[in-house]
Amino acid sequence: MAKITLTERIKGKAQQLGFQLVGVTGPEPPPHLDVYQNWLQAGHHGEMSYLACEEAIERRADPRQILPECLSILVLGIPYSNPASSQKPNGEGKAHGQIAAYAWGQDYHDVMSGY
User: Fold this and answer.
1) Is 39 domain-assigned?
2) Which of 15, 27, 30, 52 could be 63's S-S partner, Cβ–Cβ 3.0 to 4.6 Å?
């Protein structure tokens, strides 16, 4: 019988709790940091200026600035539901637009605190 690793046990428990996306990574600087920096430079962070402050960028570039003793990072995800994803403008001259998926439903901070 194969021995189950701690990582496998943690991933299994996270899935039991309802997380559909579960991963483990190290605290090394992310290889895709330039994508985030380009996203910021393009202004896609909108009014969330705290995302573009130097400290926030440095912490994303090196997670050990937050937890120096960190050996692994557990990454969890649940999908956002978007009830309007299939809705079309009604053609009656009413205002319409796109709303980010995270803005539909409950605040994800509140949802995640329930886990």
Assistant:
1) yes
2) 27
Instruction: Tell me how far apart the terminal alpha carbons of the chain are, to the nearest angstrom.
Output: 32
At 25-64, the pLDDT tens digits run 999 989 999 999 999 999 999 999 999 999 999 999 999 9
Instruction: Write the DSSP assignment of 56-67 as a string of letters.
Output: HHHHHH-GGGT-
Its pTM stands at 0.67
Tally of structural domains, the chain = 2
Distances, alpha carbon 9 to alpha carbons 15, 55, 108, 110, in Å: 10, 34, 25, 26
Identify the helix (H) or strand (E) that includes residue 23: strand 21-25
Q: Does residue 78 contact residue 18 with C-beta atoms inside 8 Å?
A: yes
In a domain, 70, yes or no: no
CA-to-CA dists, residue 91 to 37, 96, 98, angstroms: 38, 10, 15
Q: Look up residue 95 and give its two tokens.
A: 């205002």
